[in-house]
Specification:
2 helices; mainly beta; Immunoglobulin-like
Length: 652
């Protein structure tokens, strides 16, 4: 052990011992070594030692820097070798003093000083990872792990206390579906932060080391050893996704419907789920209109193809909810179902044509009856759609053609219950063809239809023979003095059967007294002799008419008319009101119904005119009696023979 003596003591000893030679030596140079050198012992540090029994005394005068002590205090042996050891991770300067003592004389040399300089060597920073590996679930978000790295040190040497340290991280490797939004980093306080992509999972292996801003050139070190840690992200099943198509609108009777790719962008989830999971759609009917149903239910396959077939004649709206499901785990926090999407299928109402079954053709006998055929039309329906059942119906009957003389007092009609009613005109018969169709009160513009197809039926009224019920003669007057064989008139029968032909004959019976005076040529009545008005003026005959099955008889009176070849009249009148010859009378003028009479005065003024019949002239004009004088007349009998012209005189 080195004993330390103060300089004052040594000086006193030297002063006291003056009888002996003072020991001497030559010290070595100041010592400069690197930090962490440990023990150091340069030989011959002290040379030219002059002392019988030398012993060196070394004393520490002061420290500077981070060194505050020695592991082994400096000593100098008798040969001049300096030895000491310094602690690790310290640097600085130590000032020392040394005195040589000669133990044989007790004398001391003059004190000498020297320095030991310990150069600073930058040491690698250090840190500790108590629980380095990370294990989190997918979608955990931003992760901040305080105190992840502990015992952070830039350098054990206190002089490096102000060095800045920085962690550096790098990826060693990761699973195929692993990715980061924020790559792991560690701040100067040891806090680890990172964020995994929301759909990423797997394992990432990360390297991390600590670096200070000190020198790094050998023998300095500014980088720690590299540590490795893992981040394990446990997969969380993500819900599958898809894009739904539009709401669907079709018309009634569309039939089987397929909509390819109604659902698009179908995905089981992130890439790792797309390669390992299968998906299927789950379809739920939430509501449906009362009059809508499906023969083939609505389905949506895994490829997004939607198909269905609405029942014909049914319509309305069906509301559906659909979601996509994968075969991955579903327990929390997993989710294997997409969001539910609502959509609708609208089947537009199309008014269907009403329908019915037409009845048989009708055959009835001629007569004056109203015929009714209940349930002639059957299975009457407004349409097959349930919501058409409240529609009002009516039949329309259209005349097409007729044969014979058939006519109707009541045109055939069909009521809503299918009852056919008609009334033929009495004594008409034949065949009539009618078209009939059923109409509902629904929409009729395309594509709607409110009329059934036309159907035809035949209505036959068979003839019934009726007897003739009257007999007529077109003329029953005859001028006297006509030759035998003169045409009198034409007979016609009144018969309810217009198409019947009739025969005519003069027959005995009441009113047949003069049958022999006439003959019949078919329906024509001819004279059998010449008649004289002055001898006999009326003749009676009896005639029978027959339609071949029934007959009718009737008596007729034939009147003989006087033959008038002209007219007679006076050539003067005396319109004085005495009742005699007050008017101008034209005898037998009534025999000529088309007679015209014109009378003029001597100036040519027309003072009287009469056409198609004569009213006796009373000698006035416009209500005033004309003056006495001669007047001129023109009388035309319009018989093709006689025109009279002359004068008539008014005598007052």
């Amino acid at each position: 052990m080195i004993r330390f003596f103060s300089l004052l003591v040594l000086t006193s000893l030297l002063a006291a011992i003056t009888a002996f030679a003072q020991p001497t030596f030559v010290k070595g140079s100041d010592i400069t070594i690197d930090q962490n050198l440990g023990a150091y012992g340069p030989v011959n540090w002290a040379i030219n030692i002059v002392a019988t029994t030398p012993i060196f005394h070394v004393d520490v005068n002061g420290f500077s820097g981070s060194i505050t002590s020695f592991t082994t205090l400096p000593t100098i042996n008798a040969s001049g070798q300096l030895s000491f050891a310094i602690p690790v991770n310290v640097s600085g300067t130590v000032i020392l003093s040394v005195i040589l003592e000669d133990q044989s004389t007790g004398l001391f040399s003059i004190p000498a000083t020297f320095k030991i300089i310990i150069d600073f060597i930058n040491s690698a920073p250090t840190f500790t990872l108590p629980s380095a590996d990370q294990n989190i679930d997918e979608k955990a978000g931003l992760q901040t792990v305080f105190g992840w790295a502990t015992e952070l040190s830039a350098d054990a040497n206190p002089v490096a206390v102000n060095q800045k340290i920085t962690f550096t991280t790098s990826l060693v490797g990761q699973s195929p579906f692993m990715s980061f939004i924020q790559f792991p980093k560690v701040d100067a306080s040891g806090t680890l932060t990172y964020e995994i992509a929301s759909t990423a999972n797997g394992i990432a292996t990360i390297e991390v080391f600590l670096k200070d801003d000190g020198a790094g050139t050998f023998p300095n070190e500014n980088t720690s050893t590299t540590e490795t840690f893992t981040i394990t992200v446990n997969p969380i099943n993500d819900p599958p996704t898809f894009n739904p198509g539009d709401h669907i609108v079709i018309d009634e009777h569309t039939g089987f419907v397929t909509i390819p790719n109604w659902a698009t962008n179908i995905s089981a989830g992130p890439p790792d789920e797309q390669v390992s999971q299968t998906v299927n759609f789950v379809l739920t009917e939430n509501s449906i209109s009362p009059f809508l149903q499906f023969d083939i239910p609505v389905s949506l396959d895994a490829s997004g193809n939607l198909s269905f077939m609405a029942t014909p004649h049914y319509n309305g709206i069906a509301i559906y909810e659909v979601y996509l499901e994968d075969d991955g785990p579903s327990a929390d926090p997993h989710d294997n179902k997409s969001s539910s999407i609502g959509f609708s299928i609208s089947v537009n109402f199309i008014n269907d044509a009403p329908s019915y079954t037409i009845g048989a053709d009708i055959i009835v006998d001629e007569g004056d009856d109203t015929f009714t055929f209940p349930d002639w039309a059957t299975t009457i329906s407004p349409g097959e759609s349930p919501n058409e059942q409240d529609q009002e119906l009516r039949f329309s009957v259209i005349f097409q053609q007729v044969t014979g003389n058939l006519a109707f007092l009541r045109i055939p009609e069909v009521d809503v219950n299918g009852q056919l009613t008609f009334r033929a005109t009495k004594h008409t018969h034949g065949e009539a063809i009618f078209d009939v169709y059923l109409i509902d009160d629904g929409d009729f513009e395309a594509p709607h239809v409110n009329e059934s197809p036309l159907q035809s039926f035949k209505l036959t009224v068979t003839p019934v023979n009726f007897p003739p019920n009257d007999l007529f003669l077109s003329n029953n007057t005859l001028l006297e003095k006509q030759n035998a064989g003169t045409f009198v008139g034409e007979f016609s029968a009144l018969d309810l059967d217009p198409e019947d032909s009739h025969t005519y004959a003069l027959v005995p019976g009441e009113g047949s007294d003069d049958n022999d005076s006439f003959v019949l040529d078919s329906e024509n009545l001819l004279t059998a002799e010449e008649f004289d008005w002055d001898v006999k003026r009326e003749y009676t005959i009896r005639v029978n008419t027959s339609d071949g099955e029934f007959s009718f008889e009737k008596s007729f009176i034939i009147t003989i008319e006087k033959l008038i070849e002209g007219i007679k009249f006076a050539n003067a009148i005396t319109p004085n009101g005495d009742g005699e010859n007050d008017t101008w009378e034209l005898e037998d003028v009534e025999t000529f119904p088309d007679v015209t009479v014109f009378i003029y005065d001597n100036t040519g003024q027309n003072v009287y005119k009469s056409k198609q019949g004569y009213i006796p002239w009373d000698g006035t004009f416009n209500g005033r009696t004309l003056p006495m004088g001669t007047y001129y007349y023109v009388i035309d009998l319009h018989d093709g023979v006689n025109v009279y012209k002359g004068t008539v005189t008014i005598i007052l």
